[in-house]
Design brief:
It is a single chain. The two termini are 12 Å apart. The chain folds into 2 domains: 165 residues, Phosphoglycerate kinase, N-terminal domain (Rossmann fold), CATH 3.40.50; 199 residues, Rossmann fold (3-Layer(aba) Sandwich). It has 12 helices and 17 strands. By secondary structure, it is an alpha/beta fold. The longest helix is centred in the N-terminal third of the chain and has 15 residues. The strands form 4 sheets. A 6-stranded parallel β-sheet has the order 5-6-4-1-7-8, sandwiched between helices. It has a 6-stranded parallel β-sheet with strand order 11-10-9-15-16-17, with helices on both faces. Strands 13-12-14 form a 3-stranded antiparallel β-sheet. Helices cover 32% and strands 17% of the residues.
């Protein structure tokens, strides 16, 4: 990974600092119901305010598609940001059609309206980028989760004023460098989830990077079916059998071991606590649904973790939302967490379901790094260039 500048490389005292953050948080009855993303950006905002910068916060909310949609206003997020920050946050409405008048002094913080109210934002329109850039002296990007979008407020501004990474962005990029850029080996990757079709590029990239890939979730069923094993009425993409076999062959040529389930947990219906049994791969009958990997597979995964130095985790091993089909995800996540705590493993995880699964397992805080970025994390693992990151690297 090319180098990039951080807050350590700029003097922000007395400067107007534009900070792009991700405030696309869930709201219920007008109140923020999960402040995780807000919590991630508080250290950057506090540091800037402590260094006497005039802070102007930029963010998007939902998809108003270039129009003013009142229910997609960031006004509802301002109180939650103020609460987490422990400092006053003034909300400033703008329709973004002209340069908004902003009264902000050093040591103060304002939150501007949804950048996506302007049609130029998502088109990375140069005129709009210039308009936003004119509001500040320095640009701080602290929104890794939006870094895969080439938008005005994530990439365009960096063409016009000095740009650096905020603390959350910096932590994310260092963690990803640890995971894939220059990992300690052996490197093991856990790839789970429902569909192989959504993870083809990811698997293609990882076979050239990882020493071992563990495949779990319903996508493992497609691999098992491609090898001639019965999968009953399990979720399975039978039309991708050849693609699954191609991935297995490609892994062989790259000296990458793919670890597929050797036993599974099956049930007759997809619901919590439905009667289930562990089954060998040949023992799955037509009305069975595979909903988790079995105890032999759990032991094999944990043994593989024992032999690794770096772990990248994206996707659960089973239908973890429904007990008892969370057993494998919980057992393996706890084992990885214990290895991390004892200094034997660097563990980096990300993706929406992954974060939920690790929280469910009670180990999210014990992993080396857990990314809250869904699409950006996945695109990074796929080996793609992220426009928001590239803009920072080019400024070095």
């Amino acid at each position: 990974m090319a180098s990039f500048r951080t807050l350590d490389d700029v003097d922000v005292a007395g400067q107007r600092v534009l900070v792009r953050v991700d405030l696309n948080v869930p709201i219920a009855n007008g109140v923020v119901s999960d402040a995780t993303r807000i919590e991630r950006v508080v250290p950057t905002l506090r540091e800037l305010l402590d260094k006497n910068a005039a802070v102007i916060v930029l963010a998007h909310f939902d998809r108003p598609r270039g129009k003013i949609v009142p229910e997609m206003s960031l006004k509802a997020v301002a109180p939650a940001l103020e609460e987490q920050l422990g400092r006053p946050v003034k909300f400033v409405f703008t329709d973004w059609q002209s340069v908004p008048a902003i009264d902000v002094k050093p040591g103060q913080c304002v939150l501007l309206e949804n950048t996506r109210y302007h049609p130029g934002e998502e088109k990375n329109d140069q005129t709009f980028s210039k308009l936003v850039a004119s509001l500040g002296d320095i640009f701080v990007n602290d929104a890794f989760s939006a870094a895969h979008r080439a938008h005005s407020s994530t990439e365009g501004i960096a063409q016009f004023i000095p740009a650096v990474a905020g603390r959350a962005m910096e932590a994310e990029l260092r963690a990803l460098e640890m995971a894939l850029g220059n990992p300690e080996r052996p490197l093991i990757a856990v790839v789970g989830g429902a569909k192989i079709s959504t993870k083809l590029e990811l698997l293609g990239n990882l076979t050239g990077l990882a020493n071992v890939i563990v495949i779990g979730g319903a996508m493992a069923n497609t691999f098992l079916a491609s090898q001639g094993y019965p999968v009953g009425k399990s979720l399975c993409e039978h039309d991708l059998a050849k693609k699954a076999r191609d991935i297995l062959e490609a892994a062989k040529t790259k000296n990458c071991t793919i670890l597929l389930p050797t036993d599974v947990v099956v049930a007759k219906e997809f619901k919590a606590n439905s009667p289930s049994r562990a089954a060998g791969l040949d023992d799955v009958v037509p009305d069975d649904m595979i909903l988790d990997v079995g105890p032999r597979t759990i032991a094999a995964i944990n043994a593989a973790f024992d032999g690794a130095r770096t772990l990248v985790w994206n996707g659960p091993l089973g239908a973890f939302e429904l007990p008892p089909f969370d057993a494998a995800t919980v057992a393996c996540a706890k084992h990885a967490a214990n290895l991390t705590k004892s200094g034997k493993l660097a563990s980096i995880a990300g993706g929406g379901d992954t974060v939920s699964a690790l929280n469910h397992s009670g180990v999210a805080d014990d992993f080396t790094y857990v990314s809250t970025a869904g699409g950006a994390f996945l695109e990074w693992l796929e080996g793609k260039t992220l426009p928001g990151v590239k803009a920072l690297e080019e400024q070095k």
